[in-house]
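## Example record

The block below lists the input lines for one assembly entry, exactly as stored, with component labels intact.
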Amino acid sequence: HMKGAIFDLDGVIVDTAKYHFLAWRELAAQLGFEFTEQDNERLKGVSRMESLRILLEVGGLELPEEEQQKLAESKNAKYVEYISKLEQSELLPGVREYLTGLREQGVKIALGSASKNAAFILERLGIAGLFDAVVDGTKVSKAKPDPEVFLTACRELGLAPQECIVFEDAAAGVAAAKAAGTGIVGIGRPEVLGEADQVVAGIFELLADSQ
Ligand code: B16
Ligand code: MG
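Predicted structure tokens for the full assembly:
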């Protein structure tokens, strides 16, 4: 019986990956190399600095730490420009209905995301009020697959991991949830999310079960 539901942000609630991609691609272009949508797959669920490290690896560049900080800031400025225009219609199908339904059943709801922009994105999407706890990249120091983000979310909800279910689209996130000891619903393709207890294509598929 699920007492708490913990949602990843990018890929579960909203497709911000496309805006991350545009911002990273612009940065790569400035640095003089091409960054493809396929390269971008490697950045899903990964922290900002780790994403930059992968991007620089794609471009075959090695840069000093200080320079890397500046590039990460510059990428984030571009990204923030995109998400400032985010619209409520960009909420993925079924998300608002599913979260509202869970609340009505008394299930506590948390966000468990690597993003430092998570609170802003929830505001833009008009769903911030549906969350009992928001645990994001500003609150945790160890990135997924480390369980810190989900363990913190359970603690903030006042629940044991065994009482919670994590909804995740990235392999690193599924691994993090596994390590935390929560239940796991994978969002996406079974090939990538094999370790989840259940895999669905999107939150919309869960609506029928919950009503
Ligand atoms: P920021 P999630 C992750 O979100 C994204 O999937 C990943 O691509 C991004 O690098 C990371 O957030 C950090 O985002 O630069 O906004 O701090 O899937 O954990 O919700
Ligand atoms: Mg994600």
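The pocket of 1,6-di-O-phosphono-beta-D-glucopyranose (ligand 1) is lined by residues 8-11, 20, 43-48, 51, 76, 113-117, 137, 170 (CB under 6 Å). The chain has a mean pLDDT of 96.
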